[in-house]
Amino acid sequence: MALQKAYSLFKQKGDRKGILASLAHLIEASIYTGIHLIPLERLVKAGEAILQSSEMNEYPRKKAMLWYFLGLGHILGDGNIRRGILACQNAYLISKQIKDLTLQGYALTFSALGWGLVGEFSLANEACKKLEKIVAKIVLPELRASNFMVTCILAYYQGDFARAQGLLERLQGEVEKYGFITISPWIYEISGYLCLSRGEIPKAEEIGKQYLSLTTTLGNDFFKALALRLLGMVYLHQGDFQKAREVTEQSIKVLTQKAASKYELQKVKVLLGLIGYHLKDYRYAERKLEEALEYFKEIASHNSAAEAQFVLALLKRDQGKNEEAALHLQTGFKIAEEMKYDHFFFLGLKYLTQVCLLALELKVARAMDYAAHLLSTRLSSVAEEALKKIMNHPDSKFREKAWEIRRTIHHAKVPILRIETLGGFQVFRGESPMAEKEWDRNQPKKLLKAIVSHDSKRTPKDVLIEDLWPEEKPRTAEKNLKITLCRLRKSFEPVVHREFGYSYVHLHDHFVFLDPELCKVDVDQFLSLLQKGEEKENKGDRKGALSAYAEAIELYKGDFLPEEVYAPWADLKKEKLREKYMEFLSRMAALYEKQGAFTKAIACYKKAVQADPLLEEGYRSLMTLYSGKGMLNEALRTYEACKKAIGEELKTEPDPLTNSLYQKIVEKLKPAWA
Length: 674
Hints:
The chain has about 675 residues and is mainly alpha-helical. The protein has four domains: about 1-220, Tetratricopeptide repeat domain (Serine Threonine Protein Phosphatase 5, Tetratricopeptide repeat, Alpha Horseshoe); about 305-415, no CATH class; about 415-520, Arc Repressor Mutant, subunit A, CATH 1.10.10; about 560-674, Alpha Horseshoe (Serine Threonine Protein Phosphatase 5, Tetratricopeptide repeat), CATH 1.25.40.10. It has 31 helices and seven strands. It has helices at about 1-15, 15-35, 40-55, 60-80, 80-95, 100-115, 120-135, 140-155, 160-180, 185-195, 200-220, 220-240, 240-255, 260-280, 280-300, 300-320, 320-340, 350-360, 370-375, 380-390, 395-415, 445-455, 460-470, 475-490, 520-540, 540-555, 570-595, 600-610, 615-630, 630-650, 655-674, and strands at about 415-420, 425-430, 430-435, 460, 505-510, 510-515, 520. The strands form two sheets. Strands 3-2-1-7 form a four-stranded mixed beta sheet. The protein has a three-stranded antiparallel beta sheet with strand order 4-6-5. A hairpin with a 2-residue loop joins strand 5 and strand 6 (about 510-515). Helix 14 runs antiparallel to helix 15. The protein is flat and about 105 Å long.
C-alpha cells in the first residue's frame, strides 16, 4: 500500500525520478510476493511509457532498475518473453555504462532465464558466463544465489540433471546460510522435478506437498500455481490421471485469476493435454494444446512449441489420425533437430521415447533420423526394452530400424579399444591395459599387428594370409586365418553378443577391418593430426599447424612395432612413419624459426637427431641455431656428436658442408681463446 501511495504522489507532483523508482519497486513487489495490488500488465505499460518519454541521460540508475523490473514483468508476468529479454538487455547496457556491477548481474540473470524459457540455450549459457564473471568480482550473496538458481533451472531445462543437482545443493547452502525467502520456493520446484527425473515419485510427491504448504504460508500465488503443477506431474507419473487433472486445473485457476503469468499458464496447458491424452478426453486435451501452441509460436518459444507438437502427435495417434500425427511429428522434430533438443520439460524420457518410436513406426521422413539419434543416445536407458518389443512387429522396415538402433546402443556400451604401436605394442580396453593372459596365444596378436600395418581399413584377407602364412597351402592358410581371427575376437570379447556378434574386428566381402568407431589406433591419429596441421599450414594458420604437429609428435613414442624385427609386413610401415616423423619435425622447427622461437626449434632438431643419429642436416641446423644464439661451445659439442656418430656407424668423416660450418664456428671462437 505504501508503494502504491508513493507512486500516486510522485505522479501528482510530476516527479519523474520518483515515478521511475516507485514503479520499479511496485513491479518488484508484485512479482516476488505474488500479490497484485495494481494489475501487473498496467504497471508494465506505465513503466514502458515513462521510459519512452524520458531524456536519454536522465536518472540512468533509476531507468536501469525500471528496465530490469519491466523485463521481469514480461518474463514472469504477461509472457512476452523476448520483450522481457530486450528490457533486461537495456538494463544491462545502462548499468554497464554507469559501472553498476550489481544491476548488471541481475539483468544478466533474468536475460539468461528468458532465453532458457524460449529454448535459446546457447544465448542463455552465454549470458550465464558473463554473469559468473560479475559474481566473481563482487561479494553479494543474493546475486550469487540468483546465479545458482538460474543456472540450475537452465541445466534442468537442458536435461543436464547431474549439473542441476550440484547447483541445487549450492543454492540450498546459500539459502540456508542467508535465509533468502524469495528464492527458497525454487528449491522445492527444482528438487521435485529432479526427483521425477530419477523416478523417485513418492519423494517428489512429498516435496510437492511441502512446496504447496510453503507457498500458502507465504501467500505467493505464483509459486502456489507451480506447486500444484508439480503435483499434477507427480500424479501423472503415478497413473492417477483424474487426480492429476484436478490439481493441474487448480494451477490453471490460480494462474488465470490470481497470479497472471501467461507463460506458465500455457505450460500448464501442455501438461493438461498430456493428462487428457491418458483420460481419452481428446477434445479437451486438443483445445488446451492448441491454445498453448498458438502462444508458443507467437513468442517463438521453440522448445515448448516442439513439446506441444509431440503431445498433439500422441493424441492424434491414439485417435487413429496417423496423417495428422505425422505432421505434428514432422514439425516437432524439425525444431528439435535444428535446436539440438534432447530433453523436454513434461515429456521426460518415457514420453519422448514413445514420440520417437511413433516417428519410426509412421515412417515420418523428416523425423526418423533425429528420432533414431535420440533413441540411441539420450533415451537409450529406457528405449532398449521398448525396441526389443518391436522385434515382433509385423512391419519389417520398422523392425530393421529398431534393430539398427539397438545395435548402436549396444556399441555405445562396448569399451573403446585403444591400440598403441609407436614405441611398442600395447592394447587398452577402456582405460585398462590388456594383460598377456587375456590373449588367446601369440598368433591373434600378430594378426592384429598385421591388420594395423595395412591402415586398419578393409585389408584383403589374402594379403593377411600372405603376411602371416606365406608358405602354407591355400586351404590351410585360409583355415589358419579363420581360427586366428576367431581367437583375436575372443581375446577382446570372451562373451559374444547373441544378436550383434563381435564388435571390434569384422570380416566382410573377403576384407578384414577394425571397427572405426570402437578401435582407436595411435598410427591413424598420428597421420590424421599431421594432415590437419598441413591443411592449417597451407591456409596460413601457423599457430594451428604447430599445435596439430606438436600433438602428433607427442604420439610418436618410437618406431612402429619395434619388437617385430623379422616381419616384412611391418617394415614398410615402420619406414614410412619414421620418414613422416622426421619430415614434420623439420617442418615444425622451420615454423618455430620463422616465429623466432629458437628454443622450440632446437628441441625439434634434437628429437630428429635422436631418432636418426646420422641426420647431418639436423646437426647442421642445431649448430647454426646455437651459433646464432652465441652458444658456440654447444655448437661445437653438437659437431663432435655428429662426427662420432658418423665415424662409428659409417667409418667416415662428416659432410664438407658440416665441416665448413664447424670451421666458421671455430673462427668465431678464436678471439675468445686469444
